[in-house]
Design brief:
single chain; 308 residues; mainly alpha; 2 domains; 70% helix
């Protein structure tokens, strides 16, 4: 704490020091994409600037929160990988606004919170964005209306994302199982109100189950998305309700197979097993453990449906 206070005094009386710190971020923003800069270094710079935005720690506010967010936006627009640059800079800002200063009744801070949420919703393909959204939605659980409203926003965006990003391969530098785990956690902390009615989930499951563009590179992400939506269905509705909505969707969904819910579940299982065997043959006995892990989760969900 003594070191922090000393640094704050140094910044307050020496504007050149603050300029130097901000210049570090600006240099990273202007650096050619792909240039190796430590995400930890970016995080620490942003963390220190967040401390300077507190007028309670010193006589006056040295930097405004909106200026910090502008630097995050600049990093996002710079072409650098968001996971390592923009999101690393945004992380301490999220912790500050949604954990440290959540109860601060300040319209300006509330506006900046909404800006952050909208930015993260555009980046849901990145694991760190999902983690930060989890922190945010969990932080407002005590405020029922805000929790429900934010949960609805997140679920609506994720449902679209899960359907439109089913055929893409693995993301650069991101573990698919890490993303899977984070998405499951995020769906656990949103309000159950955002998971009903189940109609959008039924439509999304039918849409994913009928994809014909899934190959060896994309099957893991496809199955991950299948598991997430199926889990939401079985945890938040009864089998009778799912079957009713499924049958209702048959007449309203074009370009999909006219099959029962159980037939769709078994067909997907067949496709998974076939892909596991095909992969093992093509890779000369090597097993895709990510696919095995996702397949075991799918089997668990099937057993849950049969037992209930």
């Amino acid at each position: 704490m003594v070191i922090v206070q000393t640094l704050l005094k140094l910044v307050r009386y020496n504007k050149h020091f603050l300029t130097h710190i901000i210049n570090q971020l600006e240099m990273i923003e202007e650096t050619i994409a792909g240039y190796d800069v430590s995400s930890h270094f970016i995080y620490r710079i942003a963390e220190f600037l967040v401390m300077l935005s507190h007028d309670t720690l010193h006589s006056k506010q040295v930097i405004k929160v909106q200026d910090l967010i502008k630097h995050c936006d600049s990093l996002l627009a710079s072409g650098h990988e968001p996971e390592t640059h923009a999101l690393s800079a945004l992380e301490p800002v999220v912790y500050d606004l949604f954990l440290v200063r959540l109860k601060t009744d300040n319209k300006e801070l509330e506006a900046q919170r909404m800006v952050i949420v909208q930015t993260l919703l555009k980046l849901v393909r990145y694991n760190k964005a999902l983690q930060l959204l989890t922190v945010i939605v969990d932080s407002v659980r005590s405020e029922s209306d805000k929790w429900k409203r934010l949960s609805r926003q997140i679920v609506d965006v994720l449902l679209v994302h899960l359907q439109t990003h089913a055929a893409s391969g693995s993301s650069k530098g991101q573990s698919l199982l890490d993303i899977y785990s984070t998405q499951l956690t995020l769906f656990d902390v949103v309000s159950s109100v955002a998971l009903r009615p189940i109609d959008p989930f039924v439509v999304a499951f039918r849409s994913l189950g009928n994809r014909n563009d899934i190959n060896r590179q994309s099957i893991n992400r496809w199955l991950m998305n299948i598991n997430i939506i199926l889990r939401c269905l079985v945890q938040n509705s009864t089998e009778d309700a799912i079957l009713t909505r499924w049958n209702d969707s048959l007449s309203s969904t074009n370009g999909t197979r006219d099959e029962s819910f159980s037939a769709a579940l078994l067909r997907i299982l067949h496709d998974i097993v076939l892909r596991l065997l095909t992969n093992a043959r093509q890779l000369r006995g090597q097993i895709d453990m990510t696919l095995v892990s996702l397949a075991s989760d799918y089997l668990y969900l099937l057993m849950h449906i049969m037992e209930n």
